[in-house]
Amino acid sequence: MKTSNDTLPFWKHWGALDSIVPAPQAVPPVHRAGPLAVACRMFLVLSLLTGMIYPLAVTVTARVCFPHQAAGSILKRDGQPVGSEWLAQRVAGSQYFWPRPSAGDDGTNYATVASAASNLGPTSSNLIAQVRARADEFRAAHHLADDMAVPADMLFASGSGLDPHISPASARLQIPRVAEARKFDAATTERLCKLVEQSIEPRQLGFLGEERVNVLRLNLALDLLK
Predict the structure, then answer these.
(1) What's residue 104's pLDDT?
(2) pTM, full prediction
(3) What's the CA gap between 38 and 44, in Å, rounded?
(4) Domain total of the chain
(5) pLDDT value, residue 24
(6) The predicted structure's pLDDT at residue 92
(7) Which pLDDT does position 17 carry in this prediction?
(8) 116 and 161, same domain (yes or no)
């Protein structure tokens, strides 16, 4: 600002500002990583998190908190594994309870690698023939009348073909056949009936699904029945 004692023109004072306000300095260029470098870094970080740290944490937690389930829920007899309680096995003998049929039945066991449904629809003639054959076989094996209804779980395979459960109705219908094959007397047959009732698992959380019976667990308990 020009004062009264200053005789210089106002515009000549502009050069004095250079000594007060320094000229702006050139900013060095910032070297940013290219898209490829960023993508590689993200790939390495996510691979470490989702491919190593997360699976390791889940595995350790499962092994510590749920050791039986984490090991496959394997059931043993005399110290030897006989199967998983979550995978159905083919049972053909009359002295044991039968599981649901499976689309993966190869004649010796239920296939676990290629487990799947048959993909046959309700109008399929093949499915109709299979259901009729299963119904006839079940009625004949259990001395049922030709017009007696057979539980649906003994006629239709599950979506995976490896459902380890059957309905309580299916288990109760098989009691006479098992008792006859094992030559149980009346007292032992009564204990078998109680064993089936004790093997019924309730609905999950009290309202999800239906009551069910684990076939492998029931058959293992059956071998211990005296």
Answers:
(1) 82
(2) 0.76
(3) 10
(4) 2
(5) 66
(6) 81
(7) 52
(8) yes
Q: Which residues contact 28 (CB under 8 A, 6 or more apart)?
A: none
Domain span at 47: 40-71
213 belongs to a structural domain? yes
Same domain flag for 81 and 115 = yes
pLDDT at 122: 85
DSSP-assigned letters across all residues of 14-42: GGGHHHHSPPPPPPPPP-PPPHHHHHHHH
In angstroms, the CA 190 to CA 65 distance is 39
Q: Alpha-carbon torsion 7, 12, 13, 16, what sign?
A: negative
Domain shared by 191 and 128, yes or no: yes
Q: So what's the pLDDT on residue 106?
A: 77
DSSP letter at 9 equals -
Residues of the chain with pLDDT under 70: 1-24, 26-27, 29-31, 33, 113-115
Name the H helices within 27-165: 35-48, 54-65, 67-70, 125-141
- Residue 49 pairs in a beta bridge with none
215 part of a folded domain: yes
Measured between alpha carbons, how far is 134 from 105 in angstroms, rounded to an integer? 13
Does 189 lie in the same domain as 95? yes
Helix (H) or strand (E) holding 213: strand 212-214
Distance, in Å, from the CA atom of 149 to the CA atom of 158, rounded to the nearest integer, reads: 19
| Same domain, residue pair 64 and 127 | no
- Decide if 170 contacts 195 (C-beta within 8 A): no
pLDDT of residue 35: 84
SS3 of 99, please? coil
Q: Which of 52, 71, 90 is the last residue of a domain?
A: 71
Q: 164 and 110: one domain?
A: yes
Residue 216 has what pLDDT? 96
